[in-house]
Amino acid sequence: MISKRIAAALAGATTVSLLLVACGDNGGGQSSTSGDSVKSLTILDYYNNDPDKSLVQKGLDSCASKLGITIQRETVPGDTLIQKVLQQASSKTLPDVLMLDNPDVQQIAATGALAPLNDMGLNSDGVIQGMVDATSYEGKLYGLAPVTNTIALFYNKDMLAEAGVQPPKTWDELKAAAKKLTKPGRYGIAFNANATYEGSWQFLPAMWTNGGDETDLTSPQVAEALQLWVDLVKSGSASKSVINWTQGDAKDQFAAGKAAMMVNGPWQIPALEKTPNVKWDVVTFPLNKPDQTPVAPLGGEAWTVPLNKDQAKQQKAADFVKCLNSDENELAWAKARFTLPTKTALLDQYAKEVPSMKAFAEQVKTARARTGKLGDKWPDAAKVIYQAIQLALTGKASPQDAFKQASGG
Amino acid sequence: MVTLTRTTVAGRAKSRGRRHRGETLTKVLFVLPAAVAMVALFGYPVVKNLLMSLQDYGLKTFFTGVAPWVGLQNYSTVVTDKLFSDAMVNTALFTIGSISFQFAIGLGLALFFHKKFPLSGLLRSLLLLPWLLPLIVSSATWRSILEQDSGILNRSLMGLHLINDPVPWLNSPSVALIAVIGVNIWIGIPFNVTLLYSGLAEIPDELYEAGQLDGATGWRAFFYITWPNLRSVASVVLMLGVVYTIKVLDIILGLTGGGPANATQTLATQSYEKSFIDFKFGQGAALSNILIALSFLFAIFYLRGTRRAVDE
Predict the structure, then answer these.
(1) Is A390–B60 a contact, with Cβ atoms under 8 angstroms apart?
(2) What would be one Pfam family of this protein (chain A) (predicted)?
(3) Nearest residue, CB atoms, B170 vs list A86, A113, A244
């Protein structure tokens, strides 16, 4: 009786596994003969909230129909993407097309998980240098980002007009303006100086514009930039809470009229449009000395192709990434999602069509990638930066000593 | 006739032996699911964590499967880290501060509710609310309550003219740890009240009646009757409290993320940071093993304490 049941179960299992083998053979056999047999691609990204989620879906769908394939897309929250990628890497179930935040590309490429795109007919011609730096590792291209973003200075038009203040162009003007705009219940400026990579990212416009560099964080230029943050908080022009605020918190303060200016990125524009009574505009980040040029960090996500045993599928995935980076899709995504195309040739045309993005378009041309100089060692530097900011803003160290202390000296 | 009897006896003995073996097999089969679950859910992670702490287990390991053996290097790295001693002190302050206040307030409330009064049942169940909330929700709520400029706590204190300047609850390295401990006390009170209350309910009323005849009332009743009878429950509450508190992560991450300027870093937050932000899983595992060892120490105290209570 029992043995009969076992036999039945075994028979069932064998049938299933035979079927699976048959399917596997089928797919593998065909794909090795011609690339056109690839019928579908799996995709992983972190645009898990609308409107981004559905706007990205549109671009993905149009590329899928161009290539004649179907896509299976999975989205996860931004802060869990890398953990998800690690899980998938250890179980060998990485997707065919993988989106990564641009500063992570080199780190993941360094593990040998990604396929170099140069070998599959892709190149980075015409793409702004900062983004090429971010998505290359040891001379090879591992990802392409259709759109990018950066941060600049948002200001509340009504509040500045009421106080008779012009949008600041220098740090002195910024400090004076912030002070003048501060009154009970309102701060002159909001930014994010929290103890995360986001806090470091917000500090980079000041640090880089002033000629500071992540390869030497103990330089006077870097300390001067930190002094700006300290001055803004110490004078009461910025809340002491900036050490706990995220960029979203800074936006909330600005949208609620509790801050007259903020350092933030264009991805906040859709949210700001929900409070139409707050009239705002954007200028590039102020300069310490008039002869400097504003240098801001490049944001945005790159699309990569994880190594795949199935060559045809890998090629198809590369073609898909190429399609996502077509001029047409770059402009479509940039316009719909308040981001910027990564090709220099498209930037000017874009700034004309979308005036609210003008300051960002200017800022992007000179912007740098966080991983441009240090590569996969960037996270260590970023950690020192945010810890130094915390030490200086809480008064535990002077801006001059903060970086030395934070780097363990 | 004789032979027949013999064979039946032999057969009976045989069948008894078989039944005996069957019984042992059944016993083993009953234990098996639990044993498998223990090994899979408890044994494997602990062993894996131990191994991981002796390896250079980084981002690359997930892709290549290669994790070079480094011996005790991870331990020496984390112990000599400039934050380690701070994290140890913070962990101790956090645990001692949380436990002592949770227990004291919990005991006070348990004694209060032990006196039956109208609506005491309802109030006691309302007291459980902090326990029922997801920790992430609690910490997000407290984060907005404790906000320096517009948080309701500072606003109320200012409105009552108890303070002149807003207190930087989460913004000052010298206050943040106190604020975080305060929130953790709030979360831990229901646990203490519930267990201590049931401990009080176990104490027979006759003891108090007899005590009353001998003049033991009020404080004396507490010291001579309540406390000795509550001691075994109290030791369980304290030990479990220590083991729960020493590893608290979500509340600190939600409130301060270990900041400002690392003022609220504990062993648990450091371990999390090493593993999931720096992706140095070997070092993260080393830190969490130190944490496990500390908890284990208290668990041994607890087990010895309860054994003595049983012996008594």
Answers:
(1) no
(2) SBP_bac_8
(3) A244
| pLDDT (average), residues A119-135 | 92
User: With respect to CATH, is domain A152-296+374-406 assigned 3.40.225.10?
Assistant: no
From the list B82, B143, B168, which residue is nearest A240 (CB)?
A: B168
Distance separating alpha carbons of residues B118 and A138, to the nearest angstrom: 75
Residue A397: name the closest of B90, B262, B84 by CA. B262
Do both B18 and B157 map to the same domain?
Answer: no
Residue B199 domain-assigned (yes or no): yes
CATH number at residue B254: 1.10.3720.10
**CB A150 within 8 Å of CB A297:** yes
Say yes or no: A84 contacts chain B, CB-CB below 8 A. Answer: no
Q: Is B173 on the interface with A (CB under 8 A)?
A: yes
Cα(B36)–Cα(B30) distance, rounded to whole angstroms? 11
Band (pLDDT 50/70/90 cuts) for residue B165 is confident
Half-sphere exposure of B37 (CA within 13 A, CB side): 5
Output the pLDDT for position A161. 95
Residues 6 or more apart whose CB falls under 8 angstroms from that of B300 comprise: none
**% of residues, chain B, pLDDT over 90:** 54
Put simply, the answer to whether B260 touches A244 (Cβ < 8 Å) is yes
B60, closest residue in chain A (CA to CA):
A111
B contacts of A190 (beta carbons < 8 Å): none
The CATH number, out of the four listed (3.20.20.10, 3.60.15.10, 1.10.12.10, 3.40.190.10), of the domain defined by the range A35-149+299-365 = 3.40.190.10
This model of the complex carries an ipTM of 0.81
On whether any CB of chain B is under 8 Å from the CB of A402, the answer is no
Same domain, B115 and B249: yes
Q: Cα separation of B219 and A37, whole Å?
A: 85
Assess if residue B56 is contained within a domain.
Answer: no
In a domain, B181, yes or no: yes
Give the pLDDT of residue B235: 87
Q: Are residues B96 and B233 in the same domain?
A: yes
List all residues of chain A from 137 to 196 with a beta carbon under 8 Å from chain B.
194-196
What residues contact A282, with CB distance under 8 A and at least 6 apart? A152, A153, A154, A155, A266, A356, A358, A359, A360
Q: What pLDDT sits at residue B4? A: 47
Question: Over the stretch A375-392, which tens digit does the pLDDT of each residue have?
Answer: 889 999 999 999 999 999
- Give the C-alpha separation, A362 to A358, whole Å: 6
Residues of B in contact with A379 (CB under 8 A): 278
User: Does B29 share its domain with B152?
Assistant: no
Decide: helix, strand or coil at residue A44: strand
Kindly state whether residue B61 falls inside one of the protein's structural domains: no
Give the model confidence (pLDDT) of A277-305 as tens digits.
999 999 999 999 999 999 999 999 999 99
- Asked whether residue A106 carries a pLDDT value surpassing 60, the answer given is yes
Q: B259–A244: do the CB atoms touch at under 8 Å?
A: yes
Query: B231 lies in which domain range?
Result: 76-311
Examine domains A35-149+299-365 and A152-296+374-406 and report if their fold is the same: yes
Please name the member of B64, B149, B259 whose beta carbon is closest to the beta carbon of A390.
B259
Domain count, chain B: 2
Give the per-residue pLDDT at A31.
39
Dump pLDDT digits (tens) for A311-345.
Answer: 999 999 999 999 999 999 999 999 999 999 999 99
Contact yes or no for B148 and A393 at CB 8 A: no
Instruction: Please count the residue pairs, one from chain A and one from chain B, whose beta carbons lie less than 8 angstroms apart.
Output: 76
Residue of B nearest to A83 (CA): B276
B21, B84: one domain: no
How many angstroms separate the CA atoms of A112 and A100, rounded? Answer: 15
